[in-house]
Amino acid sequence: MKTLQQHFWQLIAILEFLVIIWLILRSVIRQRKRTPETDQILQSKGHKVDMEGLMNDLHLSGDLFKELARKCHPDRFAGTDLEGRANELFQLIQQHKTNYRELVALKEAAKHELKIQLS
Questions:
Q1: Phi, psi at residue 50, to the nearest 5°?
Q2: Which of 31, 62, 67, 91 is the most exposed place for a label (fewest CB within 10 A)?
Q3: Contacts of 117 (CB under 8 A, 6+ apart)
């Protein structure tokens, strides 16, 4: 009788061990699965970040956006032949409100096309 009990508990211990191994293998396999997000993260690790452009976008774009939005607003050109172009420029300014380089290009376009004074 004692040997039957010993074999029973040994079988239970072996089954527990196999379940633990199965769970470990399953978690390792899940961790190794690649998703589009992990691929994108891995690809981005090798790229250099333009810190100057990023800092300009963060700090300088806000003031330039406010100035351009105020001076190029289509309501300022209501009833003139420049109203359509002012509306187009204003929409572009809204789209690129955090992109400093684009805002600088739009500033130059606004100076020439709308004939306004910008600082």
A1: -80, 90
A2: 31
A3: 111
